[in-house]
Design a protein that fits this description.
Layout: E1 3-8, H1 22-40, H2 44-48, E2 52-63, E3 72-83, E4 86-95, E5 100-112, E6 117-118, H3 123-129, E7 151-157, H4 171-179, E8 188-195, E9 204-212, E10 215-221, E11 227-235
Antiparallel strand pairs: 1-3, 2-5, 2-8, 3-4, 4-5, 5-6, 7-9, 8-11, 9-10, 10-11
């Protein structure tokens, strides 16, 4: 099943340029998948009754254009593969004229909170979602490696405002924290993220910023220097 929802870019979703912010783009994609699951009857409540939840493992997002305040946008999502405890999902965002603004690949893990480990995807999930063709894009490895070095620019104390229904930091919040470290004027053309461990209420998270060959990397780390998440922001192409 391919699902979608249409909205207008709200002021609360824009950055200082009046364009859809990177965290808001993540939220559009995340909300689309949540709406789809609820519509199919396999949403948060259904998963919770089985002591499970989908945990995001990685993002890869290409940003062609960021829509502006008031523009109509349509976000879509669909599953294209399930194997073992992994679920693979594509997203795209089109503007009011039907032109592609962003596209994404994502990898999710079905996690059992009682057993404390990933579990094989239930047949009910694969049957409900169905499978559709992969979106056309360059598919990069799920694992992300950032260069050594860099400097800690921000430190975040994890409060309740960062948590989601799984009681850990929502995947979009990591992106928002990492994006807050980008230098003024940096225009994001792509994003990759790999989630390594869950951050919980009361944790302290340090953002170490690294100049990479193809953009700016941010390692969000615990007090031992172990990453919760790695994020790589690629430069926008000059002709984009």
């Amino acid at each position: 099943m391919i699902d979608s929802f249409t909205s207008q870019v709200r002021y609360s979703e824009t950055d200082e340029k009046g364009l859809l912010s990177i965290p808001s783009l993540i939220n559009y994609f995340q909300d689309t998948s949540a709406f789809q699951a609820e519509k199919l009857g396999i949403g948060i409540g259904w998963l919770k009754s089985r002591n499970t939840a989908w945990i995001l493992s990685s993002w890869q997002i290409d940003i062609l254009r960021r829509p502006a305040l008031g523009e109509t946008v349509t976000a879509r999502t669909w599953a294209y593969d399930f194997h073992g405890f992994f679920g693979m999902r594509n997203f795209d965002l089109h503007d009011g004229e039907g032109k592609l603004a962003a596209r994404a690949n994502s990898c999710w893990i079905l996690f059992d909170f009682v057993k404390g480990r990933p579990v094989k995807v239930f047949p009910e999930l694969t049957e409900a979602y169905g499978l559709h063709d992969k979106i056309e894009m360059e598919y990069l490895p799920r694992k992300l490696q950032l260069p050594e070095g860099g400097e800690v620019q921000e430190t975040f104390l994890i409060g309740r405002q960062y948590l989601d229904t799984n009681h850990h930091v929502n995947n979009g919040q990591y992106i928002a924290m990492a994006a807050s470290c980008l230098p003024e004027g940096f225009e994001v053309g792509s994003l990759r993220a790999e989630y390594r461990r869950q951050a919980l209420l009361g944790d302290t998270m340090a953002a170490r910023v690294i100049q990479a060959e193809d953009g700016i990397g941010v390692s969000l780390e615990n007090e031992q220097g172990e990453p919760y998440a790695l994020v790589l922001f690629g430069n926008a192409k000059k002709d984009a």
